[in-house]
Design brief:
Largest sheet: 2 strands, antiparallel
Bound molecules: zinc ion
Low-confidence stretches: 5-14, 315-361
Number of strands: 2
Order of helices and strands: HHHHHHHHHHHHHHHHHEHHHEH
Helix content: 40-55%
Distance between the termini: 108 Å
Structural class: mainly alpha
Shape: elongated
Length: about 450
């Protein structure tokens, strides 16, 4: 027996030595008591954790300023919930709240889940972008964080975050970098309005009910949405940069919002509040609203390949300009932006009557576009194809003849939209007209084609 259970043998004349067992039980009781005390302390800490104690006094004051709140009780309930939660539960709470806001807005089919990056930056009170080119900074003041993302990738990352945070794996530095990585997706030309809606859901979650920024986003979204057919046809102040329309829009929004937060930070006596109808007003008055996009921005976010993806013709023209050695990509975009003429960059000394620039590809631009006569039709929702169909059907009278070939009509797209393509059967009409030569076409547009406008 002793041979098999040596612990029983020593000291007590064959009796049992209970000391180790007693010690183990006592240690277990102590441990349980310690755990209970810890749980009690946790519970107490949770109950007494305030938003102020969680964020620290400085960031707490900043949050009150951003929210327009006087005291902690004025903050939306999300903040107290985040303060009391453990670190691993916060992302889920935040995502749940934003999902509820989307439903409350009637946007339940919107596939959007805020990222850990967004939560981290929001709760660190880093809301404004550091500078206009730094799309990898800021949170609520950075509209590029709310663009369409790859939903599958996003869900994969969310699962990973859940696994790491539940203690399933210790996060490595590489994990942390992946999880916290801020992914900037440039919006396509017509994708930016959806981003405004997602932003609105996050603002509703984070700011008190009726905050004027939330109202601004709601109004801005509705105005852009109501303007939608015109927005889709709107070719940007510099037509060649049309594929950057969504980028311009979100940059415009980011600059307005970031400036607002920065002014609050610096205690400006008068805070400049953005006008939700600004873009639409500018377009209707044919004024430029697009912000300047810097060389740094263009190179950092590889906008030339982005343009190639969304509008091969436009990017090709940039590439042709490059290979011709005439200007850099950045130079052409910037010079395009700052060009004085509303029809875009002046022709490259190509001169003469021929104004076609993109010879190798489809689109040709009318650099002699007559804004005074046809400016209001340029961004009109009325498509030239629809007008041509009505003419063919006899619903509208024929167009006046081309000045170069009286057997053919004028090219409606070239003269009234300022652009056409190289496959057009009327390329012989893709030439400059004087105001006098335009008289018949101007009358036709006013009385027939674009009559309602
Ligand atoms: Zn044409």
């Amino acid at each position: 027996m002793h041979h098999h259970l040596p612990a029983l043998g020593s000291g007590n004349g064959g009796g049992l030595n209970l000391t180790p067992l007693v010690n183990t039980i006592a240690a277990g009781q102590q441990q349980r008591a310690a755990e209970q005390a810890q749980a009690q302390a946790d519970k107490l800490r949770k109950e007494t954790t305030t938003v102020e104690s969680w964020l620290g006094p400085e960031n707490f004051q900043r949050l009150l300023r951003y929210c327009g709140a006087a005291v902690e009780a004025d903050l939306p309930p999300l903040w107290a919930a985040l303060a009391k939660a453990t670190a691993k539960d916060r992302l889920g709470i935040f995502q749940g709240k934003v999902a509820n806001e989307l439903i409350a807005m009637g946007a339940m089919f919107e596939k959007y889940t805020p990222s850990l990056y967004l939560l981290t930056e929001v709760t660190a009170l880093r809301w404004a972008m550091l500078n206009p080119d730094a799309l990898d900074t800021g949170s609520l003041g950075n509209a590029f964080l709310f663009t369409d993302s790859d939903v599958e990738t996003e869900q994969g990352i969310n699962r990973q975050i859940g696994f790491v945070q539940s203690g399933g794996a210790a996060p490595s530095l590489a994990d942390a970098q992946i999880l916290l990585k801020m992914k900037v997706n440039m919006p396509g030309p017509d994708d930016s309005i959806g981003a405004v809606r997602r932003m609105q859901a996050v603002y509703r979650a984070i700011l008190p009910v009726g905050h004027q920024l939330t109202t601004f986003l709601a109004n801005h979204h509705d105005i852009m949405k109501a303007f939608d057919p015109n927005w889709q046809n709107y070719a940007t102040y510099v037509p060649r940069l049309r594929s950057l329309k969504g980028v311009f829009h979100l940059q415009w929004l980011s600059l307005k919002l970031s400036r607002y937060f920065t002014q609050l930070d610096h205690n400006y006596p008068i805070i400049t509040f953005p006008d939700p109808a600004d873009i639409v007003n500018c377009i209707q008055e044919q004024r430029q609203w697009e912000p300047i996009i810097t060389d740094v921005f263009i190179n950092k976010y590889n906008l030339s390949s982005f343009m190639a993806l969304h509008c091969p013709a436009d990017a090709m023209s940039v590439v042709t300009a490059l290979t011709a050695g005439s200007e850099s990509i950045a130079g052409s975009v910037v010079s395009g932006l700052t060009a004085a003429t509303p029809v875009g960059r002046p022709s490259n000394g190509g001169g003469g009557g021929s104004t076609a620039r993109n010879t190798a590809i489809d689109r040709v631009e009318n650099t002699h576009f007559n804004t005074a006569l046809f400016g209001t039709y340029r961004h009109s929702a009325t498509k030239t194809r629809a007008l041509r169909q009505k003419i063919a059907a006899g619903e509208l009278p024929a167009l006046p003849p081309s000045k170069n070939d009286s057997s053919k009509p004028v090219c409606l797209a070239w003269h009234t939209k300022g652009q056409c393509n190289t496959n057009c059967p009327l390329t012989s009409d893709h030439v400059a007209y004087t105001a006098a030569e335009y008289a018949a076409l101007a009358t036709w547009c006013r009385d027939h084609g674009y009559r309602s406008e």
